[in-house]
Amino acid sequence: MSADISIQRGATIHLKGRAEKILSEASPSKTFALKPDNFFGIVPRLMVKEGDKIAKGAPVFYAKKNPQIVFVSPVSGIVKEIQRGAKRKILKIVIEAQKGEAIVHKIPSLNRLDRKTVTDILLKSGAWPFIKQRPYGVLADPDLTPKSIYISTYASAPLNVDFQFLLKNNQKDFQTGIDILNFMTDTAVNLSVESSYLGFFENIKGVNLLPVKGPHPAGNVSVHIHKHDPINMGEKVWEVRPEDVANIGKLFTTGEFSARRTIAVAGESVSYPHYVITTIGALISSVTDITGYDNKQQNRFINGDVLTGNAEAPDGHLDFHNNLLSIIPEGNRYRMLGWLPFVDNKIPSLSKTSLSWLFASKGHSVDTNMNGEERAFVVTGEMEKVFPMNIYPMQLLKACMAGDIERMEALGIYEVLPEDFGLIDYANTSKIEAQEIIKQGIELMIKEVG
Amino acid sequence: MSFLRRKLDDLKKPFEKGQKWEKYAPAINAFDTFLFVPNHTTQTGAHIRDAVDLKRTMVTVIIALLPALIYGIYNTGYQYFIQTGEAFTFLDAFIHGSWKIIPMIIVSYVVGLTIEFIFAIYRGHEVNEGYLVTGLLIPMIMPVDIPLWMVAISVAFAVLIAKEAFGGTGMNILNPALTARAFAFFAYPTYMSGNKVWVSEASNIDAISGETILGTLAAGGNVNYSFFEMFQGSIPGSIAETSALFVVIGAAILIATGVGSWRIMLGGVIGAALVGFLFNLWGANALMSFSWVNHLVVGGFAFGLVFMATDPVSAAQTNKGKWVYGILVGVFCILIRVFNPAYPEGVMLAILLMNVFAPTIDHYVIQGNINKRKKRWASALKTA
Question: Is A379's CB within 8 Å of B47's CB?
Fold first, then answer.
């Protein structure tokens, strides 16, 4: 199928340790965690205290600004611990799994649903946090109708997840999820698919299929929106991740909050990289028990991909949204004269001062070394090479650093999320922390403009 | 390696946080990071990083400069021996040139890096690698007989006024190396222009006179060099500017590694060729009728365009802007050559002028992007 969205600028980084297409079940996880930081822009208000017994699907906390949005327990059990950080900020709510009941919601038959009922069920059941809203990547506002909804099934980031495979046993739930989401907006849900790999997505009804072609970040929703129907000032667009579409579908079939999470455990440190079925917020060890990893060296565990994910301790928990757990070696080592051109070509590089492209076909080894130190902006044009939108990334970064709201707006802050700057973080010569700068810019926008 | 590493770690102890020499850490770090890429790991943002860093980029520029520098050293000796009529070998010429030029490079690095280190310590940031290139460029674009103290003052002026006063590497408006040359040009004109400065010892030995081609043309004289001599660079001029051939090799390195902007280089050639060609048609004086092809290979045009106009900090930063900027550098270079006989070489002033206008060019390019976005917003409002 010809691609509706075709991009040239970008880079696909092939890393060693891609997940094989094998599904297995995770070992039982003793505890599960909800991390309020997984939901950008919310302030949590607890609804439970340590020692409370809760059912699966029972609310644990709500968003201060919008109390209708509740976050529910993925399992039944006992609230074991509420971990707090500086200024008593809630970092984690740990729930010890125990046999118990699940909350079941009454679902009217599909043909009697309307937008309001669907919204109510999604909110009550705790499935609402599956929906992200742009601009800014915050939780969706239940009181408004979005201009459109986007679902990207093309993961182009390093160690990419294959959603076709991941969802192969949940096609029916996925279709139901799409039908439900179609209640929320006036136009058909946009489903972006890799143009050469449509698979079962081609048979999904009620969607506007968007075949996409090109290197990473071709799979990012920002790119699809930008090329398909860019966000204008004041417009809101929603985004749902593919497995969460199936989770929503399952909720409307069974009446129970579905917290299914299929994790591609991948990366060079993983002994047997493949897909593992588990539950949102499960212990990382419950999946690495199955896949194994090289524990003789220091590793970094990343909830998400190596460009945009969150680091987590090996005894920590999975995040709410991620379908990928990347495990790569830490890079706290010195490299003698490593700054010379054409030295250490094994380290992947987009720069032509390295011969790393020779090793691309086999997949690169990477670690977490910075490969240099932060410097002022010097080199120009390199950010544009990995940024396929009609936005000037360096100028936008500078506007964010200066806190110049009007300029950020004019340069396109509404159309980007920090994740779109993952490759810029990776590729820029001056080691500028672009994602962090954009995140701070977005926080400023939320504070000043809302 | 681990032995050296341990020694270095011991050496660095007094510079650590809370220790007595903490303030001077940037100085020792600069040396350390030249030996070893540090063991720092990613803390925020992407967990993996590209192998490229600013050191690698700057060293690539230095590598690209080396062919022109080596030829410049040889040509310094060659011009001297040809004019005095002595018999000489390649090695003689090279040694003569080295005696002249290596002290200039040392002075440039010592003075420039000292100032850079002081500012890094004062501002509490790491030493930026930019001066490694600037420090080599400055001697390469000076006349060979310029006294070393003038080199030192020009360097100090460039680093202090053109760079640090604006906030250091990445913040400067003008190219520091060209600023150094412009400073020397206006402060010490007798050492920077005329017919007695371009060949080694020309002012001391009567037998030697060495006028640059553009100088001869501006004075209305005839040029006796063949195109090949001009291209190969066996002509008088600033130390490393004379050989278009070796500059082209440098340009190839910069373009192949992606370090230098091909847009600026190609734009400059197009701009200069076009204006040169138009003047050929007009042909009112010697410089106007000087073939446009020759304009591209004589003087500092090629060197300036490849190594100075492409300085990413002072050039235009957007891709469209780079085209405009490059073309205008070429256009102004030839215009100044032809219309301003006081400055037979126009490339220095053309690039400095365009450095000043680069932000303006970018402004209009970016404004175009902004206007497009705002227009889209407006039309979305209308249909809504």
Answer: no
Nearest CA to A28 out of A389, A285, A332 is that of A285
Contact between A353 and B45 using a beta-carbon 8 Å cutoff = no
> Are B297 and B256 in contact, with CB atoms under 8 Å apart?
no
CA-based nearest residue in chain B for residue A303: B47
- The CA-based dihedral angle spanning residues A373, A375, A380, A384, taken in that order and rounded to the nearest 10 degrees: 60
Contacts of B51 in chain A (CB under 8 A): 338, 344-345, 347-349, 351, 354, 356, 371
| A412 shares contact with chain B (CB less than 8 Å) | yes
Domains and their CATH numbers in chain B: 54-365 (1.10.3430)
- A 150-189: CB under 8 A from B: 158
Q: What would you report as the CA-atom Rg of chain A, rounded to the nearest whole angstrom? A: 21
pLDDT tens per residue across span A84-119: 999 999 999 999 999 999 999 999 988 889 999 999
Q: How far apart are CA B344 and CA B185, in angstroms?
A: 12
Report yes or no on A366 lying in a domain: no
The beta-strand segments (E) located in A175-306 are 189-194, 207-213, 237-240, 260-266, 274-279, 299-303
A372 CB neighbours in chain B (<8 A) are 37, 49, 52-56
In Å, how far is A258's CA from the nearest CA of chain B? 30
| A392–chain B Cβ distance below 8 A for any pair | yes
A/B interface, count of CB pairs below 8 Å: 219
Which residues of chain B register pLDDT less than 50? Answer: none
ipTM over 0.90: yes
* Cα–Cα distance measured from residue B243 to residue B320, given in angstroms and rounded to the nearest whole number: 30
Q: Report the CATH number at residue A70.
A: 2.40.50.100
Predicted confidence (pLDDT) at residue A1 exceeds the cutoff of 60: no
Rounded to two decimals, the pTM is 0.94
- Total number of domains constituting chain A: 4
> What pLDDT was estimated at residue A362?
84
Q: Is residue A266 part of a domain?
A: yes
Alpha helices in A182-307 (DSSP H): 221-228, 242-254, 284-291
Instruction: Retrieve residue B95's tokens.
Output: 């040694």
Chain A interface, mutation test: which of B37, B128, B375, most A Cβ atoms within 10 Å?
B37
A46 and A148 in a single domain? The answer is no
Integer Cα distance of A449 and A442 in angstroms: 10
pLDDT tens digits for range A328-355: 999 988 988 888 898 888 889 998 888 8
- Taking contacts as CB-CB distances below 8 angstroms, the residues of chain A near B367 are none
